[in-house]
Amino acid sequence: MTVADAKKIAEQKMQKSIETLKSDLAKVRTGRAHTGLLDHVMVEYYGTPTALPQVANLTLVDARTIGVQPYEKKMVATIEKAIRESDLGLNPSTQGDLIRVPTPPLTEERRKEMVKLVKSEAEDAKIAIRNIRRDANESLKKLVKDKACSEDDERRAQDDVQKLTDKFVVEVDKMVAEKEKEVLTV
Protein backbone atom coordinates (compact mmCIF):
# COMPACT_ATOMS: atom_id res chain seq x y z
CA MET A 1 0.00 0.00 0.00
CA THR A 2 1.15 3.52 -0.77
CA VAL A 3 0.25 6.90 0.70
CA ALA A 4 -1.99 7.60 -2.29
CA ASP A 5 -3.79 4.27 -1.78
CA ALA A 6 -4.45 5.07 1.88
CA LYS A 7 -5.94 8.47 0.98
CA LYS A 8 -8.02 7.00 -1.86
CA ILE A 9 -9.42 4.23 0.34
CA ALA A 10 -10.28 6.76 3.07
CA GLU A 11 -12.09 8.99 0.56
CA GLN A 12 -14.08 6.07 -0.86
CA LYS A 13 -15.14 4.92 2.61
CA MET A 14 -16.15 8.47 3.59
CA GLN A 15 -18.22 8.73 0.41
CA LYS A 16 -19.98 5.49 1.37
CA SER A 17 -20.76 7.02 4.78
CA ILE A 18 -22.38 9.96 3.00
CA GLU A 19 -24.44 7.59 0.81
CA THR A 20 -25.58 5.69 3.91
CA LEU A 21 -26.61 8.94 5.58
CA LYS A 22 -28.59 9.92 2.46
CA SER A 23 -30.53 6.66 2.56
CA ASP A 24 -31.08 6.99 6.33
CA LEU A 25 -32.37 10.54 5.93
CA ALA A 26 -34.71 9.41 3.15
CA LYS A 27 -36.43 7.16 5.72
CA VAL A 28 -37.21 10.12 7.98
CA ARG A 29 -40.80 11.14 7.45
CA THR A 30 -41.74 14.70 6.59
CA GLY A 31 -45.27 16.03 6.25
CA ARG A 32 -45.50 14.92 2.62
CA ALA A 33 -46.00 11.42 1.30
CA HIS A 34 -43.24 9.78 -0.72
CA THR A 35 -42.86 6.17 -1.78
CA GLY A 36 -39.37 5.91 -0.26
CA LEU A 37 -41.09 5.93 3.12
CA LEU A 38 -42.17 2.31 2.61
CA ASP A 39 -38.94 1.02 1.02
CA HIS A 40 -37.75 -0.53 4.28
CA VAL A 41 -41.02 -2.21 5.29
CA MET A 42 -40.49 -5.97 5.26
CA VAL A 43 -43.32 -8.32 4.19
CA GLU A 44 -43.54 -12.09 4.72
CA TYR A 45 -43.50 -13.42 1.16
CA TYR A 46 -43.72 -17.23 1.07
CA GLY A 47 -41.93 -17.41 4.42
CA THR A 48 -39.15 -14.99 3.46
CA PRO A 49 -38.93 -11.39 4.71
CA THR A 50 -38.98 -9.29 1.52
CA ALA A 51 -38.82 -5.52 0.98
CA LEU A 52 -42.23 -4.05 0.11
CA PRO A 53 -41.16 -2.60 -3.30
CA GLN A 54 -40.33 -6.16 -4.44
CA VAL A 55 -43.87 -7.45 -3.85
CA ALA A 56 -45.93 -4.38 -4.74
CA ASN A 57 -46.01 -1.31 -6.96
CA LEU A 58 -45.77 1.94 -4.94
CA THR A 59 -47.32 5.14 -6.31
CA LEU A 60 -48.39 8.53 -5.02
CA VAL A 61 -52.17 8.88 -5.12
CA ASP A 62 -51.99 12.50 -3.92
CA ALA A 63 -49.72 14.70 -1.78
CA ARG A 64 -50.60 12.86 1.43
CA THR A 65 -51.46 9.34 0.21
CA ILE A 66 -49.31 6.46 -1.05
CA GLY A 67 -50.94 3.76 -3.18
CA VAL A 68 -49.67 0.20 -2.79
CA GLN A 69 -50.70 -2.23 -5.57
CA PRO A 70 -49.59 -5.80 -4.71
CA TYR A 71 -48.38 -7.95 -7.61
CA GLU A 72 -50.41 -10.86 -6.17
CA LYS A 73 -53.95 -10.34 -4.84
CA LYS A 74 -53.47 -12.74 -1.92
CA MET A 75 -50.68 -10.49 -0.56
CA VAL A 76 -53.06 -7.58 0.21
CA ALA A 77 -53.76 -8.54 3.85
CA THR A 78 -50.11 -9.42 4.54
CA ILE A 79 -48.85 -6.11 3.12
CA GLU A 80 -51.48 -4.11 5.00
CA LYS A 81 -50.49 -5.86 8.26
CA ALA A 82 -46.76 -5.24 7.62
CA ILE A 83 -47.33 -1.52 7.01
CA ARG A 84 -49.52 -1.22 10.12
CA GLU A 85 -46.94 -3.01 12.30
CA SER A 86 -43.98 -1.00 10.99
CA ASP A 87 -42.65 1.77 13.24
CA LEU A 88 -43.82 4.47 10.83
CA GLY A 89 -47.15 5.12 12.57
CA LEU A 90 -49.18 4.65 9.37
CA ASN A 91 -52.71 3.25 9.15
CA PRO A 92 -53.36 1.71 5.71
CA SER A 93 -56.84 0.99 4.34
CA THR A 94 -57.71 -1.47 1.59
CA GLN A 95 -59.97 -0.68 -1.36
CA GLY A 96 -60.27 -3.81 -3.48
CA ASP A 97 -56.72 -4.76 -4.36
CA LEU A 98 -55.28 -1.26 -3.76
CA ILE A 99 -53.94 -0.35 -0.34
CA ARG A 100 -54.14 3.37 0.42
CA VAL A 101 -51.62 4.61 2.99
CA PRO A 102 -52.47 8.14 4.20
CA THR A 103 -49.58 9.99 5.84
CA PRO A 104 -50.98 12.10 8.66
CA PRO A 105 -49.63 15.61 9.07
CA LEU A 106 -46.89 15.81 11.67
CA THR A 107 -47.54 17.52 14.98
CA GLU A 108 -45.01 20.06 16.26
CA GLU A 109 -43.85 17.60 18.91
CA ARG A 110 -43.38 14.83 16.30
CA ARG A 111 -41.44 17.23 14.05
CA LYS A 112 -39.03 17.98 16.90
CA GLU A 113 -38.58 14.23 17.48
CA MET A 114 -37.80 13.83 13.77
CA VAL A 115 -35.18 16.61 13.98
CA LYS A 116 -33.57 14.79 16.93
CA LEU A 117 -33.54 11.60 14.87
CA VAL A 118 -31.94 13.44 11.92
CA LYS A 119 -29.25 14.90 14.19
CA SER A 120 -28.60 11.46 15.67
CA GLU A 121 -28.16 9.97 12.18
CA ALA A 122 -25.78 12.83 11.33
CA GLU A 123 -23.72 12.25 14.45
CA ASP A 124 -23.43 8.55 13.54
CA ALA A 125 -22.18 9.53 10.07
CA LYS A 126 -19.63 11.94 11.55
CA ILE A 127 -18.39 9.24 13.92
CA ALA A 128 -18.01 6.85 10.99
CA ILE A 129 -16.05 9.48 9.05
CA ARG A 130 -13.77 10.15 12.02
CA ASN A 131 -13.17 6.41 12.45
CA ILE A 132 -12.17 6.22 8.79
CA ARG A 133 -9.73 9.10 9.39
CA ARG A 134 -8.26 7.25 12.37
CA ASP A 135 -7.84 4.06 10.32
CA ALA A 136 -6.19 6.00 7.48
CA ASN A 137 -3.79 7.69 9.90
CA GLU A 138 -2.91 4.34 11.44
CA SER A 139 -2.17 2.85 8.03
CA LEU A 140 0.03 5.90 7.25
CA LYS A 141 1.95 5.38 10.50
CA LYS A 142 2.41 1.73 9.56
CA LEU A 143 3.86 2.82 6.19
CA VAL A 144 6.43 4.97 8.02
CA LYS A 145 7.20 2.12 10.41
CA ASP A 146 7.71 -0.24 7.45
CA LYS A 147 9.87 2.46 5.81
CA ALA A 148 7.53 2.63 2.79
CA CYS A 149 7.29 6.43 3.08
CA SER A 150 9.04 9.27 4.90
CA GLU A 151 7.69 11.07 7.96
CA ASP A 152 7.22 14.24 5.90
CA ASP A 153 5.08 12.32 3.40
CA GLU A 154 3.10 10.90 6.31
CA ARG A 155 2.47 14.37 7.79
CA ARG A 156 1.36 15.73 4.40
CA ALA A 157 -0.91 12.73 3.89
CA GLN A 158 -2.40 13.14 7.39
CA ASP A 159 -3.13 16.79 6.55
CA ASP A 160 -4.84 15.67 3.33
CA VAL A 161 -6.87 13.07 5.22
CA GLN A 162 -7.89 15.75 7.75
CA LYS A 163 -8.98 18.05 4.89
CA LEU A 164 -11.02 15.19 3.44
CA THR A 165 -12.58 14.57 6.85
CA ASP A 166 -13.47 18.26 7.21
CA LYS A 167 -14.98 18.32 3.71
CA PHE A 168 -17.21 15.31 4.41
CA VAL A 169 -18.26 16.60 7.85
CA VAL A 170 -19.34 19.88 6.21
CA GLU A 171 -21.31 17.86 3.65
CA VAL A 172 -23.05 15.98 6.48
CA ASP A 173 -23.92 19.29 8.16
CA LYS A 174 -25.41 20.63 4.89
CA MET A 175 -27.52 17.51 4.40
CA VAL A 176 -28.79 17.71 7.98
CA ALA A 177 -29.65 21.40 7.67
CA GLU A 178 -31.66 20.69 4.50
CA LYS A 179 -33.51 17.77 6.07
CA GLU A 180 -34.17 19.74 9.26
CA LYS A 181 -35.66 22.58 7.21
CA GLU A 182 -37.76 20.07 5.26
CA VAL A 183 -39.07 18.41 8.45
CA LEU A 184 -39.89 21.69 10.20
CA THR A 185 -41.69 23.17 7.17
CA VAL A 186 -45.42 22.88 7.70
Tell me the number of helical segments per DSSP (H or I, 4 or more residues long): 4
The average pLDDT score comes to 88
Low-confidence stretches: none
Q: Widest sheet: strand order? A: 3-4-6-5
What's the helical proportion of residues?
55-70%
CATH superfamily of the largest domain: Ribosome-recycling factor
- Beta strands, count: 6
Please state the structural category. Answer: alpha+beta
- Name given to the CATH architecture of the largest domain: Orthogonal Bundle
The tally of domains stands at 2
CATH class of the largest domain: Mainly Alpha
H/E series: HEEEEHEEHH
Strand content: 15-25%
**Separation of the first and last Cα atoms:** 51 Å
Radius of gyration: 22 Å
CA-based shape: elongated
Walk me through the structure.
Helix content is 58%, strand content 16%. The protein is α+β, with helices and mostly antiparallel strands. Strands 3-4-6-5 form a four-stranded antiparallel beta sheet, with helices on one face. Strand 5 and strand 6 (98-102) form a beta hairpin. Helix 1 (3-27) packs antiparallel against helix 3, helix 1 runs parallel beside helix 4 and helix 3 (108-145) runs antiparallel to helix 4. It is elongated and about 70 Å long. It starts with a helix and ends with a helix. The mean pLDDT is 88.
